[in-house]
Amino acid sequence: MNYDVIIIGAGSMGMAAGYYLSKSGKKTLLLDSFHPPHNKGSHHGETRIIRYAYAEGEEYVPFILKAQELWNELERDTGKPLFIPTGVLSVGNKESNFIQNTISSSTIYSLPLEVMNPVEVQNRWSGITMPNDFIGCFEPSSGVLKCEESIKAYQMLAEMNGATILSNCRVKEIHIQEEKVTIKTIDKTFHSDSLVIAAGAWSGHLLSMMDLDLPLTPVRKTFAWFDAIEKIYNSNDFPAFAFETSQGLYYGFPSVDGAGLKVGRHDGGERINPDEVMKQFGEIVEDRGDLIQFLNQYLPGIGQLKYGKTCMYTLTPDDKFVIDVHPKYSNVAIAAGFSGHGFKFSSAVGQALSNLIVSGKNEIDISQFSIDRFYN
Ligand SMILES: Cc1cc2nc3c(=O)[nH]c(=O)nc-3n(C[C@H](O)[C@H](O)[C@H](O)COP(=O)(O)OP(=O)(O)OC[C@H]3O[C@@H](n4cnc5c(N)ncnc54)[C@H](O)[C@@H]3O)c2cc1C
Questions:
Q1: Which of 14, 42, 235, 353 has a beta carbon 3.0–4.6 Å from 9's, enabling a disulfide?
Q2: Mean pLDDT value across residues 163-167
Q3: Average pLDDT, stretch 239-256?
Q4: What is the reported pLDDT for 146?
Q5: Ligand 1 lined by 337 (C-beta under 6 Å)
């Protein structure tokens, strides 16, 4: 079977790319090992934070603003509510890079940000306590994306545009010869002019089949829901949050539809092979204790653990993404290494991948995500 483009991985980035490529008139095939959205990769757990005054660096801001514009379009085009306007509160030592970068990203791009001392934070959200040398930066226009629902929304539009999505169809082999792509699964062979690799934690393995060795490290991550007093922690009143503490960087979500407060830790995690069975939440003793010590210290009103889950990050050495064309094959675009903060960008990443395939360039500068940074 012949296609204009094959996308390997119909998860966060791949499904969005499938929408934009099919919209541009490309005959598009998406292949996924599982049935997206699913709980085997990096995109499950109901919610993801989206914030614009970016603590990771102001260079991300134009890309994230583009992403939000595209999320708004997706909501409008599907009629599905995908964004919950909770606002996001970033908390940390006032001298830290995390806080200083948040403030400078907001200043440079004139993004609304309320900088608050501990008393102001605690007066506004009685569920929080924090040390005197910390400050809070509240971004009222940011919030939470429904992750599985967003992937389903792109899937619906991609299929309406004529894209084919094959689930439970794991790619085993990739061959590229004279600008023609051949993809093999266990029992099928497909051909195309172009290829997109958006395989999350499995990207390193697939890229190694194409003579590309990128520093991508899959790690095990955990997150959990806790009982929470709805009057205080519900998503109309309580923000999504990120706390940089001396123990680690923790993030979380207010109770959405009575689900409880969700919390996870961003830094750390055990290096894993995504093809091996991962230890379940709680199999490592620190899974619970780590989150509970954070909650006891900063959100002391939170109740019992309800349940936890595991998920995967794919880290790069600088925590920046890889969004680029294969150095040897100009008809292959790659999106990988989202380092635990990529979901919010996935609308804009999908559009960028489509642009790289269609015209070789993207309207928003994505050179910070280039492959050659690893070799210079
Ligand atoms: C617990 C947790 C919390 C997070 N919180 C946030 C947050 O608050 N905000 C934020 O912006 N980001 C967050 N992230 C990060 C974000 O979710 C990821 O960066 C993003 O989902 C990565 O998308 P992806 O497309 O690379 O991977 P995925 O969404 O996992 O998609 C990859 C797909 O490729 C498929 N695949 C792999 N190999 C093959 C193959 N050989 N053949 C066919 N298909 C294949 C997989 O089945 C999968 O469906 C979080 C991540 C985790 C784990």
A1: 14
A2: 98
A3: 98
A4: 98
A5: no
Residues annotated as catalytic (active site), given as ranges: 44, 47-48, 262, 266, 311, 344
Atom 16, ligand 1: which residue's CA is nearest?
343
Upper half-sphere CA count for residue 351 (Cβ side, 13 Å): 18
This prediction's pTM? 0.98
Q: Across all residues in the chain, what is the average pLDDT?
A: 98
Q: 93 C-alpha to center of ligand 1: Å?
A: 30
Report the nearest-CA residue for atom 51 of ligand 1: 340
Among protein residues, the one whose CA lies closest to atom 47 of ligand 1:
33
Judge if the beta carbon of residue 63 lies within 6 A of ligand 1: no
Distance (Å, whole) CA 39 – CA 222: 13
For 173-239, give the secondary structure using H, E and C.
EEEEECCEEEEECCCCEEEEEEEEECCHHHHHHHHHCCCCCCCCEEEEEEEEEECCCHHHHECCCCC
Name 259's Cβ contacts closer than 8 Å, sequence gap at least 6. 46, 225
CA distance linking residue 204 with residue 178, whole number of Å: 23
Decide whether any atom of ligand 1 lies within 6 Å of the 291 Cβ: no
Cβ neighbours around 344 below 10 Å, total: 26
With a 6 Å cutoff on the Cβ, whether 68 touches ligand 1 is no
Is the Cβ atom of 64 under 6 angstroms away from ligand 1?
A: no
Beta strands in the chain (DSSP E): 2-8, 28-31, 47-50, 83-84, 88-93, 114-116, 134-139, 143-146, 164-166, 173-177, 180-184, 189-197, 217-226, 240-244, 249-253, 261-265, 270-271, 305-315, 322-325, 332-336
Give the other-Cβ count within 10 Å of 29's Cβ: 26
Closest to 139 measured CA to CA, from 48, 243, 59, 54: 54
Residue 319 has pLDDT above 90, yes or no: yes
Nearest-atom number in ligand 1 for the CA of 198 is 25
Both tokens of 90, joined, read 């970033």
Residue 8, ligand 1, Cβ within 6 A: yes
Query: Given its phi and psi angles, is residue 52 left (phi above 0), alpha (psi -120 to 50 degrees) or beta?
Result: alpha
Task: Work out which ligand 1 atom sits closest to the CA atom of 170.
Answer: 42
What pLDDT does residue 110 have?
98
Looking at the predicted structure, is the pLDDT value of residue 1 above 90?
Answer: no
Spacing, Cα 200 to ligand 1 middle (Å): 5
